[in-house]
Amino acid sequence: MTKSNRFASIRSTKKTVITQPAKPEPAVGHSVEKEAVEHSNKLSLSQMGWRVHFQHQLAGLDFSEGRVARISAHHRGQYDLLSELGETSLAVKSDLPPMTVGDWLLLDEQGNFLHLFERDSLFSRKAAGSKLERQLIASNLDWVFIVSSLNHDFNINRIERYLALVNDAKVTPVVVLTKQDLCDDISAYTEQLRALDSNLLIETVNGLDGDSVQALKSYCGNGKTVALIGSSGVGKSTLVNSLLGQVEQSTSGVRTDDSKGRHTTTGRSLHLMPTGGLLLDTPGMRELQLADCEDGVNDTFSELVSLAEQCRFGDCQHQQEPGCAVQDAISSGSMSERRLVSYQKLLREQALNGASIAEKRAQGRSQSKLYKRIQESSRSNKRG
Ligand SMILES: Nc1nc2c(ncn2[C@@H]2O[C@H](COP(=O)(O)OP(=O)(O)OP(=O)(O)O)[C@@H](O)[C@H]2O)c(=O)[nH]1
Ligand SMILES: [Zn+2]
């Protein structure tokens, strides 16, 4: 294949037609489901979220042929992939780099792995159990909806924590306030958010009302990848259902709905919304904890960080030190004390969570030394 026609399939401008019903279909019979699988599983690259960032990387790659694919689910032994040719899969093997839902890959003509594209955003967390490495959660997102409800559950400190996480992953956060139908004074909440950052994107919705959720439409357009985070009971599942429509428009065309009225799919994590965007919903995203994300905390408190640069002492703790620009701002009322307390708490918390990986290693080492000492002393006891 010559250089000029390499990646011909990738550069093809031919639009693959996707049969996406304007209105969600009612109950899904077997034959309808089969038809949907045959027709709706081919998306164009832009519908899958491909963008210039990846196209630039592609131009610099030294492979003579190949096609790109995006990971739509990660099972124990296999990745599910979306490509212009439809759905495929790739077996998880030890010689593959660590990969996650949202990643873009280059495959050869036989579907073998060739290359992992550099991500433009990534969520990861400390791996659970005894594993010491980081677990990848999701990548290449356009927006993350930080979901919070407009009632007593609203907690500005918790929202700051989520902002730190999202900023650390290099994704643009949108605070989505649910249960607007139950709230008489929405501005009391939005003002608190505006005080954090006057440019913060804030939307209010009634998650139960599909029309109200249209307020989020502009974030969910063609090829935009969106995920949700937020604590329990704030209305994430309700919002997911409203965003996907009454009957889920899954990328595979496989539609299932469990008895609780929640949309479940056969382990798939990327779901096509009627608006053309992709909703990335995994348990991992929902369980995210603040860990090891100093950059994200600093981004979230950028006004405080720039003030701190003006403190007289480089290691100022912003307590009673003379010449502390942060304390000056608090005294003059231009910054709240709550903000400083929250900043220091989040920095400590993320450091603690991040350090526990190193601590676990140290614990492991000292434990094996202890066992060794016990073995040696029992041997010498036997001998002696
Ligand atoms: N009135 C009103 N109720 C809502 C709204 N959004 C969600 N609810 C209700 O709030 C409750 C919790 O909503 P869920 O969608 O299950 O919340 P969740 O965030 O997914 O909760 P977890 O599954 O525990 O993480 C349910 O009873 C919903 O019907 C809303 O905008 N308005
Ligand atoms: Zn200071």
From TrEMBL:
Biased composition (Polar residues): 1-19
EC number(s) recorded for this UniProt protein: 3.6.1.-
Cofactor(s), names only, from the UniProt record: Zn(2+)
Domain EngC GTPase intervals: 139-286
Xref: InterPro entries: G_CP_dom, P-loop_NTPase, Ribosome_biogen_GTPase_RsgA, RsgA_GTPase_dom
A GO BP entry: ribosomal small subunit biogenesis
Cofactor detail note: Binds 1 zinc ion per subunit.
Region annotated Disordered, chain positions: 1-30, 358-384
Keyword set, alphabetical order: Cytoplasm, GTP-binding, Hydrolase, Metal-binding, Nucleotide-binding, Ribosome biogenesis, RNA-binding, rRNA-binding, Zinc
A Pfam family of this chain: RsgA_GTPase
A GO molecular-function annotation: GTP binding
Annotated positions binding Zn(2+): C311, C316, H318, C324
UniProt domain CP-type G: residue ranges: 133-288
Record keyword Nucleus present: no
Annotated localization: Cytoplasm
One CC-aspect GO term: cytoplasm
Family that this chain belongs to: Belongs to the TRAFAC class YlqF/YawG GTPase family. RsgA subfamily.
Subunit (UniProt): Monomer. Associates with 30S ribosomal subunit, binds 16S rRNA.
Biological role: One of several proteins that assist in the late maturation steps of the functional core of the 30S ribosomal subunit. Helps release RbfA from mature subunits. May play a role in the assembly of ribosomal proteins into the subunit. Circularly permuted GTPase that catalyzes slow GTP hydrolysis, GTPase activity is stimulated by the 30S ribosomal subunit.
Name under which the protein is recorded: Small ribosomal subunit biogenesis GTPase RsgA
Organism classification: Bacteria, Pseudomonadati, Pseudomonadota, Gammaproteobacteria, Alteromonadales
Gene name of the encoded protein: rsgA
